[in-house]
């Protein structure tokens, strides 16, 4: 809880300079209330509005709950409601008790959920509650304001959706909310994971209702979040549009380029392989879904912008090809360093790679280059002794050339006399 409260304190300081934050889409999906499926509970927030920072999808990894927020009330009141809700949840409250904290703050909405506590939405909202029974029957129930609850132990979901004023697709929320709720129910019935369903919700809502800017999403069982992948880069601006291309990636070596820079590439500059285009909603799904091929990559030793993301892609490509082999991973990273894909760090050795195959995790320990260098010195197949000799010879030749220039007149006269 301490980490969450620190993050909220930072947002409280910034809110003096930030316009109202209003997530207009919140969703929580629970496909496995037992918590055994690592992808069985997920949630996320999105909007057409500005300032969709991580405060709109706060997660507790330890307690496995998420607090999604929005509404048209005062931003400070929204944060106070979030703090109250988190305090309740940390002390063992149910999802309905956590969401009910919104009722004390005008215009505020809180959606709360977790694999063991169910899900609920309270305050100001227009939502559908989706339940799927053991006989695979689907029920969707509309709610507007007050409190809507998915009890603990039940498979189902809650989705809230409104349109933001100024959205070119204003007026579509009512229809899209119902259609998306039906599709959520069908996907739960058909056995899709919660993380996959949340990604599909982001796709449908961004395309059909125009509430398209991240925001982000979380996997409540695995404790994975999209973090700042799609949130705004600056205050009072929108986040990344979730229905647009997000990155191009080489399936062979992990080389990648984010948009808009990716528009300059069709093939991998390293091996010529055609690049694969990943849309933001698929990138979101991939980021929160744990699979057989999933790899959690941690980078240490350098905070160079983009280094963590690039390293992650290279490591994932290496693991996909060669498995959890520290030598192979180090070789792949060093290839990226030689090719200029990875910059500002020195070559790595297998001892710099911490592999935990059982946890599907890899840690990479870099050594930053000194004096602002972007690439390490060349590894030439010549000893330093030979290079010293060559340097001495070059120096001697240089001295001779200087002497020839200085005494050229005297030498010419000497040759002419002869």
Describe the structure in your own words:
This protein is of the alpha+beta class and 418 residues long. The protein has 3 domains: 2-225, Glutamine Phosphoribosylpyrophosphate, subunit 1, domain 1; 292-379; 384-417. The chain is 33% helix and 24% strand. It is built from 10 helices and 16 strands. The chain has helices at residues 2-14, 75-90, 95-99, 173-189, 194-208, 280-288, 307-322, 326-338, 384-406, 408-417, and strands at residues 25-30, 41-47, 57-60, 65-71, 108-114, 118-132, 138-150, 156-161, 213-219, 224-225, 245-249, 256-258, 276-279, 296-300, 353-356, 361-365. Strands 1, 2, 3, 4, 5, 6, 7, 8, 9 and 10 form a 10-stranded antiparallel β-sheet that branches. It has a 3-stranded antiparallel β-sheet with strand order 12-11-13. A 3-stranded mixed β-sheet has the order 14-16-15, with helices on one face. Strand 15 and strand 16 (361-365) form a beta hairpin. Helix 5 (194-208) runs antiparallel to helix 6 and helix 7 (307-322) packs across helix 8 (326-338). It is elongated. Residues 10-19 have low confidence and may be disordered.
Walk me through the topology.
Elements: H1 2-14, E1 25-30, E2 41-47, E3 57-60, E4 65-71, H2 75-90, H3 95-99, E5 108-114, E6 118-132, E7 138-150, E8 156-161, H4 173-189, H5 194-208, E9 213-219, E10 224-225, E11 245-249, E12 256-258, E13 276-279, H6 280-288, E14 296-300, H7 307-322, H8 326-338, E15 353-356, E16 361-365, H9 384-406, H10 408-417
Parallel strand pairs: 14-16
Antiparallel strand pairs: 1-2, 1-8, 2-9, 3-4, 4-5, 5-6, 6-7, 6-8, 9-10, 11-12, 11-13, 15-16
Helix pairs in contact: 4-5, 5-6, 7-8
């Amino acid at each position: 809880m301490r980490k969450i409260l620190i993050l909220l304190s930072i947002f409280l300081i910034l809110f003096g300079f930030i316009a109202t934050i209003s997530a207009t889409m919140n969703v929580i999906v629970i496909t496995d209330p037992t918590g055994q499926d690592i992808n069985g509970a997920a949630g996320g927030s999105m909007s057409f509005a500005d300032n969709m920072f991580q405060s709109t999808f706060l997660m507790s990894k330890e307690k496995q709950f998420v607090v999604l927020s929005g509404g048209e009330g005062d931003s400070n009141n929204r944060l106070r409601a979030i703090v109250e809700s988190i305090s309740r949840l940390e002390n063992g409250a149910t999802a309905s008790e956590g969401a009910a904290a919104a009722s004390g703050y005008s215009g505020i909405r809180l959606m709360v959920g977790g694999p063991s506590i169910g899900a609920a939405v309270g305050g100001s909202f227009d939502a559908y509650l989706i339940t799927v029974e053991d006989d695979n029957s689907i029920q969707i129930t509309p709610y507007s304001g007050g409190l809507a609850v998915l009890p603990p132990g039940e498979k189902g979901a809650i989705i809230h959706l409104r349109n933001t004023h100024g959205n070119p697709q204003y007026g579509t929320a009512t229809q899209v909310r119902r259609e998306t709720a039906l599709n959520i129910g069908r996907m739960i019935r058909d056995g899709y994971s919660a993380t996959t369903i949340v990604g599909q919700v982001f796709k449908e809502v961004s395309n059909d209702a125009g509430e398209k800017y991240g925001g982000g999403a979380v996997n409540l069982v695995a404790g994975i979040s999209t973090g700042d992948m799609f949130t705004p880069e600056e205050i009072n601006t929108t986040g990344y549009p979730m229905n647009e291309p997000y990155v191009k990636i080489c399936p062979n070596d992990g080389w990648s380029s984010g948009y808009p820079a990716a528009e300059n590439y069709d093939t991998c500059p390293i091996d010529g392989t055609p690049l694969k285009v990943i849309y933001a909603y698929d990138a979101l799904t991939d980021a929160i879904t744990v699979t057989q091929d999933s790899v959690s990559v941690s980078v240490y030793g350098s905070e160079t912008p983009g280094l963590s993301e690039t390293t992650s892609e290279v490591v994932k490509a290496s693991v996909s090809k060669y498995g959890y082999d520290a030598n192979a991973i180090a070789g792949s990273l060093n290839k990226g360093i030689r090719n200029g894909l990875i910059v500002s760090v020195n070559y790595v050795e297998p001892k710099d790679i911490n592999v935990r195959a059982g946890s599907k995790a890899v840690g990479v320990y870099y050594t930053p280059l000194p004096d602002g260098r972007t690439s390490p010195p060349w590894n030439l197949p010549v000893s330093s002794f030979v290079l010293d000799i060559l340097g001495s010879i070059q120096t001697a030749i240089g001295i001779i050339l200087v002497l020839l220039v200085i005494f050229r007149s005297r030498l010419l006269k000497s040759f002419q006399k002869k």
